[in-house]
Design brief:
Chains A, B: Its EC number is 1.3.1.12, 1.3.1.43. Two copies of one chain form a homodimer. The first copy, chain A, is of the alpha/beta class and 308 residues long. Helix content of chain A is 49%, strand content 12%. Chain A has a six-stranded parallel beta sheet, sandwiched between helices. A three-stranded mixed beta sheet of chain A has the order 7-8-9, covered by helices on one side. In chain A, helix 4 packs parallel to helix 5 and helix 7 crosses helix 9. Chain A is elongated, with a radius of gyration of 22 Å. Chains A and B meet through helix 7, helix 8, helix 9, helix 10 and helix 11 of A and helix 7, helix 8, helix 9, helix 10 and helix 11 of B. The complex binds NADP nicotinamide-adenine-dinucleotide phosphate (2 copies). One NADP nicotinamide-adenine-dinucleotide phosphate (NAP) binds next to helix 1 and strand 7 of chain B.
Chain lengths: 308, 308
């Protein structure tokens, strides 16, 4: 039996991430009641139909009024406005968090609107799918995934610990780091890969129509993995690139330098340079499999006809 | 019951692709006997242990002597030398094919060594995993995947048809096109995605060690898909980039132009340009799902804890 960690949880924003928190924390028995608020009447109604919470509010200020914990689950670019709307209504001791994929910019946007009597513990669960909205949520999303918390140095350790326990009870492994460090690591592990995937799928979509249809047909040869990544939510990703601009541009600069070297090797027929890089990257894959972030099972592309 | 299409099949090279042909055509009952030859004694011994063929030869010339069909399953850069070795020993009417991921360069390398009395029908099964060697082979690899054949205009249609039937009996969907068109389509659907994946994994592996270990840890956020692609066989891919240089450089040029536009949009905080591209790429994904090249199932990253 897990004890109740927060008698009253409020979720502002109830898409994939918020809905999954509702389902997972309910399942874990770590919250007493869940109050939900979201921008549009349609999403709020859908959340109610799905039975994600105990009370539903059009106005976020009402949803947070008695909350012991508030988690803001909206796109990064909307976090500041939400903080402004709820700030004056937060009760003393409340733990305020978010789930944004960028941290420093979110802290800059939210912190000025939060009263001194709350504990602000920004967070980012590193888990997701390419689907959005409350229907996409499911209780197992955070199982065995990382959740990074980036509390500022002065924050009450007891508040950080309570939020960490909430995430652990949802199955996540909690990691602490500074907001700036988080943003640099995610720029290379997540933001740059998404940018590259968006870019190559864009390049393909601009091809002459004769080739274009065959690009779809023969997508299984590598391209398809990129299209999955490039199907991620446009609003969320626009906000991420705008909010983590410096770190993304820094990593993009390194990527471009490396790509120039590789291009030169192809143009000059320099097989050794290609072979050396391709051998080095294989080792990275082995490390990832070794630390359990993926399996060594071959990927046949589609699930429907693998060896079983 | 399928009839025997080729009484004697010879496979030169018996890695992932060759071994899967052996297993699949045996299972389909379309070949009488299978002769196998490969460069190294160790691989030949392993093929024999796995029972992939009926006869095993160190010398490819001996393996092809009575063959009705010979499929060369070695890296693209080695196809010319294999053709030179087997050319004088091929029997009249023999169907000679290959499985190379690049077609025009392979045709240029092999054709001069093949006698006029054989039928040369180059091929490329668009199926694979990131694993290599005879142990990686399995009979279902070609199920529901494309196999592209690129016969020159003058080749005997009956020979093309026999080879097409062999592939269809292995579960593949056969498509005909010119070698040059194949190379352009594959440059964007396969070669460029691999190059980009190799490059970004290389960039990450050059990071300062403090960030590097976290790149592995948080790889599930997008990077991991790239490492799987970048774990593909270094020899095979070196050969592909050298052999399909022009088409790859052409696609790389377009990719770079698009990336400059995207970089500028990030630098200028131009959210509309980002949003528009990200919306356009989502539509491409939907087309791929619609034509059955992938499922709409969310990808949780790891197979071990998805909803089932
Ligand atoms: N998806 C992932 O893979 C993933 C992973 C980790 C973290 N995150 C982070 O989680 C957050 C939410 O992502 P999600 O995938 O749950 O998104 P989602 O499914 O699209 O849901 C977004 C939620 O935010 C609300 N919202 C959107 N724009 C808003 C605005 N301008 N003002 C106020 N509310 C707004 C939506 O409200 P209405 O529907 O009522 O309009 C909805 O409730 C983002 O910050 C993202 O960076 C996402
Ligand atoms: N893997 C894929 O995803 C994929 C997909 C479609 C097409 N293809 C094409 O299929 C072909 C083989 O790929 P694979 O994945 O089967 O490779 P693999 O598993 O590495 O097997 C390669 C085979 O070629 C032999 N070989 C390697 N270098 C050689 C050389 N210099 N001279 C003569 N023989 C040599 C190897 O012999 P030893 O082991 O005896 O040295 C082995 O029998 C390549 O042309 C590739 O472009 C691959």
């Amino acid at each position: 039996m897990t004890d109740i960690i927060f008698p009253r949880l409020a979720l502002i924003g109830i898409g994939l991430i918020g809905a999954s928190i509702a389902l997972a924390s309910r399942k874990a028995g770590t919250v007493g009641s869940i109050a939900i608020s979201t921008r549009s009447p349609a999403t709020l109604k859908r959340a109610e139909e799905l039975g994600l919470g105990d009370a539903y509010f059009a106005d976020p200020a009402e949803a947070v009024r008695d909350a012991d914990c508030v988690i803001v689950c909206v796109p990064v670019g909307a976090c500041g406005a939400v903080a402004e709307a709820i700030g004056p209504h937060l009760k003393p001791g409340c733990v305020v968090s978010d789930v944004g994929s960028v941290k420093a910019a979110v802290v800059r946007a939210m912190a000025p609107h939060l009263p001194a009597h709350v504990n602000f513990v920004p967070g980012h669960p590193i888990a997701g799918t390419e689907h959005s909205g409350p229907d996409a949520g499911f209780a197992e999303l955070y199982q065995n995934r990382w959740c990074v918390l980036t509390p500022a140095p002065g924050v009450d350790p007891a508040a950080v610990d309570r939020l960490a326990r909430l995430w652990r009870a949802m199955g996540a492994n909690v990691e602490m780091m500074s907001a700036e460090h988080h943003d640099l690591v995610l720029a290379i592990t997540s933001h740059l890969p998404h940018l590259i995937a968006y870019n190559i799928v864009g390049t393909a979509s601009d091809l002459e129509s004769g080739i274009r249809s065959e690009v779809l047909k023969f997508s299984a040869s590598g391209f398809r993995d990129f299209t999955r990544i490039a199907a991620s939510d446009p609003t969320m990703w626009r906000d991420i690139f705008l909010a983590n601009k410096e770190a993304v541009l820094e990593m993009l600069g390194r990527f471009n330098e490396d790509l120039s070297t590789l291009t030169r090797a192809i143009r000059n027929g320099d097989g050794d340079t290609l072979f050396d890089l391709f051998t080095r990257t294989r080792a990275i894959r082995r490390s990832i499999v070794a630390i359990g972030q993926d399996t060594a099972e071959p990927d046949f592309g589609r699930r429907d006809h693998g060896r079983s």
